[in-house]
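Thread: Newbie trying to understand structure tokens

Hi all, I'm a second-year student working on a class project, and my supervisor (Dr. K.) asked me to get a predicted structure for one chain before our next meeting. I've only ever worked with sequences, so writing a 3D structure as a token string is new to me. If someone could post the tokens and maybe explain what I'm looking at, I'd be very grateful. Here's the chain:
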Amino acid sequence: MTHTPVLLNETLALLAVNEGGRYVDGTLGRAGHTSAIIAQGGEVLGIDRDDQALAEVAQKKIERLHALKGRHGDILEITRGWGWNEVDGVLLDLGVSSPQLDEASRGFSFMHDGPLDMRMDTSCGVTAAEIVNNESEAVLVETFRELGEENRASAIARAIIKRRAQKKFATTLELADVVEKVSPRRSGKHPATKVFQALRMAVNDELNELRRALSGALELLKSGGRLAVITFESITDREVKRFFASHVGREVSLQQGGSEWQGELPRVRLVVKRAVQATGEEVDLNIRSRSAKLRVVEKM
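---
Reply by user tm_fold:
Sure, no problem. This is what the structure looks like when written as tokens:
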């Protein structure tokens, strides 16, 4: 499956892309959103830790795109190192791209049998197999519960411990089969969905990367610049929502009269009060857009 950027028109409109503006795409992927930003006259610094994605983008030879390898958590250091001290907008399109999901060798999906890897940067870090084969039952339970919001975390962790005592996990379908035996498929999502989500987030340290990226992005924005974030899981959407709310702050009445603003700096305003979601038409064309949520703020 080719990569189709989700909420593309909405993202472009809410970023308010202007001719000659400088933008950072902290999760470049296959440059779907970035290409559209450039088509509207913007110049983009794109960051990604996936060597395969960067190689594919390089072949496209997109003008006014500067693609660099790195983590989006390092967005401030990478952008300032490039020589851009402030920018007009930042985009973070979180989660896994279609090519990553569709390529069995990357190990992100239980829809294809492949090595249990899940690293976005395959040159470093622990794999999902190392986690399920080596971590304690308590750590597995915490991982599945906290990062996957899996209600049957304890039962699944026990089943994994029992299975690995006989044979270590090596492939995606081996793990998916064990999870499905504990939580038989009824309807809707595959029972291994949340476990795979949790492992992917743990392998790539996604929550900590997101927190650093959000802080770095706000630091980079010029006054009036906008930060757009697209999430695909409730846990990351809550993180973004809480972060934005803390910087929106609120006016608090004082006993001695008057009021003062309380909140984190730099101060922002919500461009949209509620998350923007894909239309039914977009979901029909791209099923992976069904869980996407777009939130945007503007630096004051």
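A couple of things are worth pointing out once you decode it. The CA atoms of residues 255 and 272 lie 32 Å apart. The longest helix spans residues 206-220. Feel free to ask follow-ups in this thread.
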